[in-house]
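CO-FOLDING WORKSHEET

Operator: S.A.
Ligand of interest: NAP
Run index: 324
Mode: holo prediction, single chain
Checklist:
[x] sequence pasted
[x] SMILES validated
[ ] output reviewed
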Amino acid sequence: MSNFKWGILGPGSIASQFAEGLKVIPDAELYAVASRRQEGLDNFKEKFDFSVGYTSYEELAKDPDVDAIYIATPHNFHYECAMLCIKYDKPVLLEKPFTLNQKDALKLINYAREKQVFMMEAMWTRFFPAMVKVRECIAAGEIGEVRFVEVDFGFRCGGNPEGRLLNANLAGGALLDVGIYTVAAAYMCLGEPSQIKAMAHIGETNVDEQTSALLGYDNGAMAVLTSAIRTNTNHELTIYGTEGSIKVPTHFWKPEYYILKKAEEEKVHCPIIGNGYNYEAIEVMNCVRSGKLESAVVPLDETCSMMGTLDKIRNEINLSYPFE
Ligand SMILES: NC(=O)c1ccc[n+]([C@@H]2O[C@H](COP(=O)([O-])OP(=O)(O)OC[C@H]3O[C@@H](n4cnc5c(N)ncnc54)[C@H](OP(=O)(O)O)[C@@H]3O)[C@@H](O)[C@H]2O)c1
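OUTPUT RECEIVED:
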């Protein structure tokens, strides 16, 4: 089989991790990179080998030899970058959060469906072997009916007000950056909630420095989600069922093991190959090669619903961005 030729759009910090992840996939090739700046390309070239460099995102999108594009720009550019790639019929792996809100998510998904182009949110956590097994445990009824989910993702970022995390002009804040992981974990266990309550601390730069949300479900199940960008938390996911529980200890978003607790406690190790970004890349490659337009593991309707939940949480905490 010929190599799958990846393009990277926005070669910043996370793009380096993704490029590193590609190295462990035998038939994946980092083929092309697009930065708005020559300096951005030069910096990336020092770290990674690639065949073609563009100083225009559009040139990358137009390149007929590129099989799929990984978009790794700050949140508020996801929509326009993905629209550009789809315009040129390029399959897209789009960093989280997919867009800024559900309205944009819906427009993007409709466009991809109309053009029949593959697209997936880069919710890489879903593809780790441990997460695959956790889903299998839940589906097999190992812990009975899921009644309660607790999940947190909080870290202390540097205090640069201009940086992506604290800057309102770059859609900063805890919820969109890491809260999305907690929402995705709740969806993985319980699906779309029917009730949402939330509270946040909005800091000096007008973004949420910490947010807690409570999701409610028609059957009485609940999920408690915590996210933060100025405070370190445990980074754990615990799923409580009627017959037992599953704990995915720190860092639940790149898990190496989980603990299944019933009458006895079992620690299940699930070794990781590479840095973990390889798993989502393999999913995209498999889907594109088999002609699928979306992934069954991170389906577009679920991504769209999760964006709606983020909207509702934002509404509860009165968080909007200057450009909205
Ligand atoms: N999956 C994960 O584990 C993970 C982890 C961290 C971040 N992320 C996500 O990845 C995305 C990028 O995060 P990052 O930390 O890698 O960001 P970053 O390094 O600050 O920026 C990434 C790239 O975005 C491009 N960009 C385009 N327009 C820009 C603008 N107006 N201002 C600033 N940069 C602009 C820049 O590329 P050029 O200038 O070279 O064109 C820059 O190198 C975010 O949406 C974030 O949520 C995911």
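REVIEW:
The CA atoms of residues 169 and 308 lie 21 Å apart.
The mean pLDDT is 98.
[x] output reviewed
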